[in-house]
Every structure is written in structure tokens, then in C-alpha cells.
Amino acid sequence: MSISVEKFVAPIQELGALNVANIEKLISLQVEAIEEAASIAVESLKKAAAVKDMEGARSYFTSQSEVVKQSVESAVARSKSVAEIAQAYPASIKKIVDKSLTIG
Hints:
By secondary structure, the chain is mainly α. It has helices at residues 5-49, 54-101.
């Protein structure tokens, strides 16, 4: 009984492709988070620099609670995406392994 090189290598290639796809998704989520954080920081600094009096300061600090709320919501959404990737990974590996173990 001989196993062709292609049959031996195919699951390794599939696992590699799966890993690359997951890494790309995770990096994309990380870049999105960094871009969002940088944008929020710059906007916050601009608004803080524009404060001229106590009413402006009060308005600025009040608006920051909404900014924080939105940031937390975005972080939670990204965390859910990461969890989905992590949960799907074992099933994807199992599918590749099961397929490679089939006779034929």
C-alpha cells in the first residue's frame, strides 16, 4: 500500500492555509482596533484643546462617557469575532484530519 505524496502533503497545505486565513482575520481585527483607538485619541485631543471655559470642560467630559461606551462596545464586538475564530478552529482542523484519514 503506497501513499501518494499529494495525499500526504494536501492536509499539511490545508492546515497551513487555515492558519494563514485565521492569522489574517486576527491581524485585521487588531489593525481595526489600533486605527479606531488612534482616531478616538486624536479627536479627543482636538476637543480637549478646544475647551475654553468651564461649560466647555463640562461638555467635553460628558461627551467622553459616550466615547468610552462606544469604544467598549467595539472591543466587545471584536472579542466576539476572536472567540468565533477560536471556536471554529478545532472543527476545521478535525475536518481536515478526518478527510486525510479516509481511505481511497
